[in-house]
Amino acid sequence: MRKIKNILLLAGGDSTRFWPLENKLFLSFLGKPLILYQIEELLKYGELVTVVANKSNATTVKRLVENNNIESVQIIIQKDDYSGMAGAVFSIKNHIKGEVLIINGSDLIDHSIILKLMPLIDQENKLIMVGKQFNEYFSGGYFKFDDEKKIIGIIEKPDKDKRPSSTVKLVFDYFADIKDLLKYFSQAKTQKDDLYEAIINKMLLDDLKHTHLIYDSYWYGLKYPWQVLPMMRNFLILLKGQKISTSAEISEKALIIGPVVIGENVKVGAFCKIVGPTFIGDNTIVGDYSMIRESQIGEDSLVGSFSEVARSYVGNNVFLHRNYIGDSVLDNDVMFGAQAVTGNLKFDGEKILSEVNEKRIDTNMNKLGAIVGKLSKIGVNATIFPGVKVGKKSWVGPGEKVKYDVEDKTYLADGEEKGNIKV
Amino acid sequence: MRKIKNILLLAGGDSTRFWPLENKLFLSFLGKPLILYQIEELLKYGELVTVVANKSNATTVKRLVENNNIESVQIIIQKDDYSGMAGAVFSIKNHIKGEVLIINGSDLIDHSIILKLMPLIDQENKLIMVGKQFNEYFSGGYFKFDDEKKIIGIIEKPDKDKRPSSTVKLVFDYFADIKDLLKYFSQAKTQKDDLYEAIINKMLLDDLKHTHLIYDSYWYGLKYPWQVLPMMRNFLILLKGQKISTSAEISEKALIIGPVVIGENVKVGAFCKIVGPTFIGDNTIVGDYSMIRESQIGEDSLVGSFSEVARSYVGNNVFLHRNYIGDSVLDNDVMFGAQAVTGNLKFDGEKILSEVNEKRIDTNMNKLGAIVGKLSKIGVNATIFPGVKVGKKSWVGPGEKVKYDVEDKTYLADGEEKGNIKV
Amino acid sequence: MRKIKNILLLAGGDSTRFWPLENKLFLSFLGKPLILYQIEELLKYGELVTVVANKSNATTVKRLVENNNIESVQIIIQKDDYSGMAGAVFSIKNHIKGEVLIINGSDLIDHSIILKLMPLIDQENKLIMVGKQFNEYFSGGYFKFDDEKKIIGIIEKPDKDKRPSSTVKLVFDYFADIKDLLKYFSQAKTQKDDLYEAIINKMLLDDLKHTHLIYDSYWYGLKYPWQVLPMMRNFLILLKGQKISTSAEISEKALIIGPVVIGENVKVGAFCKIVGPTFIGDNTIVGDYSMIRESQIGEDSLVGSFSEVARSYVGNNVFLHRNYIGDSVLDNDVMFGAQAVTGNLKFDGEKILSEVNEKRIDTNMNKLGAIVGKLSKIGVNATIFPGVKVGKKSWVGPGEKVKYDVEDKTYLADGEEKGNIKV
Lengths: 423, 423, 423
Description:
- Chains A, B, C: It catalyses: alpha-D-glucosamine 1-phosphate + acetyl-CoA = N-acetyl-alpha-D-glucosamine 1-phosphate + CoA + H(+); N-acetyl-alpha-D-glucosamine 1-phosphate + UTP + H(+) = UDP-N-acetyl-alpha-D-glucosamine + diphosphate.
- Helices cover 16% and strands 32% of the residues of chain A.
- The termini of chain A are far apart.
- Chain A is an alpha/beta fold and 423 residues long.
- The first copy, chain A, is globular.
- Chain A folds into two domains: 4-223, Spore Coat Polysaccharide Biosynthesis Protein SpsA, Chain A (Alpha-Beta Complex); 229-416, UDP N-Acetylglucosamine Acyltransferase, domain 1 (3 Solenoid), CATH 2.160.10.
- Chains in contact: A-B, A-C, B-C.
- At the A-B interface, strand 32 of A face loops of B.
C-alpha cells in the first residue's frame, strides 16, 4: 500500500471551551492518551507524521512518542505568525515538502477513509476535502455545491436555516503539494482566525483542481468537555472479550460480565458487579458492593464500597465512596465523599444545557451528569445537578446542592462561593 | 346455596380526601383493580351485581367488566337527584326489584358474612344492618341500642365521649324489598348528604321489622390515601408459596424468600433479596442489590439498583434508584432520583399526622413514609418527611427537604414552590 | 510472684471534657466496662485494689464488682476535703496501710510494667514514678532531670517549647508507705487541683529516696471523647481468630473475615461483610448488605441494611440504616435515619479539630467522624461534619447539615436549634 508522504497532525489549539478539563490530546482513554492513538493509527497511512504542538505541550508530546518508541514522527512548535490553523500550517513550511494530509488531533474518525483518498489522488487533484452529513445543526463550515455537486465554497457557521447543504467540512484536507497552500499566505489580506478557511475559499475561486469525499462513519470531536463521553464509548465498544490481568485479585463473590479489561494489581471486592464494555486501569481498587458499567476507570483509583459508576469517564487516582456517578466525567485526582451524587436527567426529559463562556449550550445529551476538574473534592452527601461543571482544585462542602458551575480553586459552602482555596 | 337477588355496589362517590391518589376503585392490588375483586367476590353471593358509577368512571368500570368477561353485572350512572348514598340508591329505582344488599365499593371486608345474613333473611326481617366493634374512636355512624340490644337509632359521628356504643354501622345494608327504601324518598324533608342515614333512622322510628349482625373480621376503607397500605397488606397476606413466572429471569445470585409472586418477563438482578409476602407485576425490573419486602410493585417498573422497598405500595411504570421507600405509596409513573429517601418515623415515636383539607389528621400509624401522586418526579438526594404527600405531576428538586404537602403540578426548589409545571 | 499490697485505682474524677459521652469508666469495650478490665488486670499484681469512686458512680462500681464475683476489692467514696488526685488519696487515709501504687482508672496501659517495679522496690525507694516519652506535645507533667538523669522536679503543662524533657509523668506512682504521702497534706499550703503534684515536687525537693521507670508500650487516656477510638482499637487488636456464638444465625451469603467475635443470638443477614478485628455484642442484628470493619458494635443493636461501619465504636441498642459511620463514636440508644452520613475527612487533609469548653482542640486525628451522645436521633439524609459532637437526647432533623456541636436535648432543624426536647 502506498503511504501519503506527510500527515500533519494539529495539536496546538487551545482548550478554553474544554474547561474544567484540560489538554484534550493527553486525555487517556483505556490507558492511552488520545494523541498516541492518533499517531499510531496515522502511521499506518503516512510515511511521516508531523505534529504541530504548542509551547506548553510539545515536551509532553515528545516524551510520549519517545517513551513508546514511535518512529517517523517529527514535532514542530507552532509559531505565532498566524493564528488558528493557518499558523499551524505556516509553522511547518520549512519542515515538510510535497503532498500533505492535514488532520485535527482531537477529532476522532475512522482513518481508513484515507484509503479512499488514493484513487482521487491518482486523478491528480490538487485539493481533496472530506465532508460529513449531519442531520442536526452542527456549528462548522458547510460545503456549498454547484449543480454538478462540485464544491464552490465553504460557508463558515451559517445560521441554522441558511445552511447551503447538510455536509460539514471535516478538518481532513489533502494537498498534492504544500507549496500550493503556502503561496496563498503571501497573498492573504486577513490575519484573522479564519485565514485557513479563507485560503481554501480562494483556491476554490481560483478553480484549483479539487474534489471531495463524503465520510459516513463515526466522528467525535472534543470541543466541549461532555464530548469525552461519546468518544470514550467509541473506544469501549471496540473491547472484545475479557482481559483480566493475572496480577488482579477478583473476589469469588464478584460478577464480571461482558467485555471487560482489568489492569495489573487491580482488586475487585466482594459482591461487585462489573458490566462491559468497561476498562479498569492498573492498581485500581473496586470496593465491595460496587457496580461499574460501560465506563472507564483510570489507574490508582478507588471505587469505594457501594458506588455505582455508569457510562462515565473516571480518571486516575480518583476516590469514590457510596456515590452514584452517572454519565459523568471525573478528571484525575478527584475525590467524592460518601453518598455524594450526580443528577443526570432533567425532570422534563429535555436535552441538558451547560454554560460555556457565559452562554447556555445545548449538549445534545438527554443524560449528562457532572464534569469535575482535576484535584477537586466533593463533600459527603453533596448533590450535583445535571450538566454542572466543577472547576479544578475546588471544594464542594458536605451536603451542598450544586446548581451552577463552580470556578477553579473555589470553596462552595452554604450555597455560596466562600473564596479561593490556596493550593 | 341461595343467592341474594340484587347486590348494589356503590362506586359513585368522590375521592377528595384520597388526594394525591385518585380513582380508589381502580387502584390495582397485586395486579387487579379493587373493584374487580369486589365484583368477583360478590357474584358468589348475589344473582346480579348493580354497580352505581359516576359519569367519569362508568366507562372504565364497563370496560373492566367486559374485558374480564364478567356476566351478571349491570352498570348504572348515578343521577344527581340526591347527593351521597341516597342519590346512588335513587338512581337504580327503575333498574332493580325485590331484595337488595347495599355495599360500598371501596370498603374491603370478608364477604362471606353474607352467609350469616341468610337465616336472618328467612326470619322475614325487612332491614338487616351490620356493625363492627371498634376499640378506638372511628368517625362513622354508631348503633344506639335499647336494653334488649335492639337498635333504636344510628348516631352519626358523635363526639368521642358521646358514642352510644362501640359498634359502628358498616355500609352493608340488606332490604327485603327495595320499595321499602324508595318510598321514604318522597317523604324525606332533607336534601342533604345524610338523607340515606336519615331514612334508616326514620325506618327504625317506624319500627320496620329489622335486626343486625356483628361482623368481627377485617375491614379496610379507603377514605385516606395512607389506608392503601393496610389494604395492600391484607391482599399480600393471602399469598401462599412462591409463584414465579417461567418467563422471569432471576439472577442466580438473588435471594427470594417466602410467599412471592413474580410476573411475566420480570428481571431480578444480582445480589437482590425479595422477602414475601411480595408481589411484582409483569415486565418489572428489579436492579442489582435491591431489596423488597412486604410490598407490591406494579407492572413495567424499575426498582433501580441499591433500592430498598419495605411495606410499600408501588404502582406501574415507577422508576426508583438507590432509594429507601418505607411504608410509602407511590402511584403510577412516579420517578425517584438516586438516593432520594422517605422518612417514615417520627423522632418522638408518636403517630404520624397528615394534612387533609387543611386539618392535621392522625393517621393512626407509627410508621408512614411518603404518598406520591401520578407522574411526579423526586430529585436526587431529596428527603421527604414522614406522612408528607406530593401531588400529581409535581417535581421535587434535587436535594430538597420536603416537610409539607406539595400541590399538584408544582415545582419545589430551594424550599419554595417555584410555580406551576405546564404539562 | 510477690504482689503489691495496695493498688489505688482512681475512679472519682469528673468527665466534663468527655461530653457528650459520660461515665468513661463504665464505657464497655467488647462487652466489658473499662473499669472491670482495670480491676481484673490489677488484681494480678496487687493484693487489694481500692477503688476511689465518687458519690454518683460508687454504687455502679460496687454492683459490677459483685455481679462479677470479684474479691479483694474495696470501694471508697471520695471526700471533698481536697479536690483532684489529692482528694482521692486523702479519702483512703484510714482504709489502707503500707505500700501503695496509685493508678488512674481511665488510663489504659500494659500493667505488666508493675513487674519492672519490683527490683526498684527492693532497692528501698520511697517513691517510684513512671514516665513515657512523647514525640509530639502532650498536655501533662514533664520530668525535669538533673545531669545524672535523676528527676528533680515535675513541670506541669509547660509551653510547648519550654518542655524540660520529652518524658511525661504517668499517673502511676508507687509509695513504699502511704504515710510518707499523707504527712505532706498537713504541711500543704495549696488547696488547688494540683495539690498532689505540688506534694510530689516537695518530696523531690526534700530528696526523698526515689527513682523512675520509662514505660515504652501503649498508653491510652480518655480525657476527650474521640480517645475512645484508639482505646477501642487497642482492645480489638487483641482478638485472635473467630469466635462465633453457636446461637448466632449467619447467612450463607455473608462473609466473615479475620478475627471477629459474634455474640449470642446475633443475626447476620445476606450479602454482609464483616472484617476483623471486629466485635459484635449479643442480640445484635446486622442487616443485609451491611459491612462492618475494625469496629465494635454493642448489644441489642441493629446495623440496618446497606450500612457501613468502619473503625467506629457503636454502643448498645443503636439503630442504623443505610448509613456510613466512619471513625465515629455512637453511644448507647442512638438512632440514625436512612442515609444519614458522617464525614470523617477534611478537604485539606489536616488534623480534625473539635470544640471543647469553647476552645478548638486538635484531636490529632486525620480521620474522625461524629461523636453522638446517648438517646440522640439523627434524621434521614442528615450530614454530620468531621469531628462534630451531638449531645445527649438531641434530635437532628432530616436532611440537616451539622457543622457545629449540638447541645444536649436540642432539636436541630432548618440549620437552627429549635429549642429543647422535653424527655
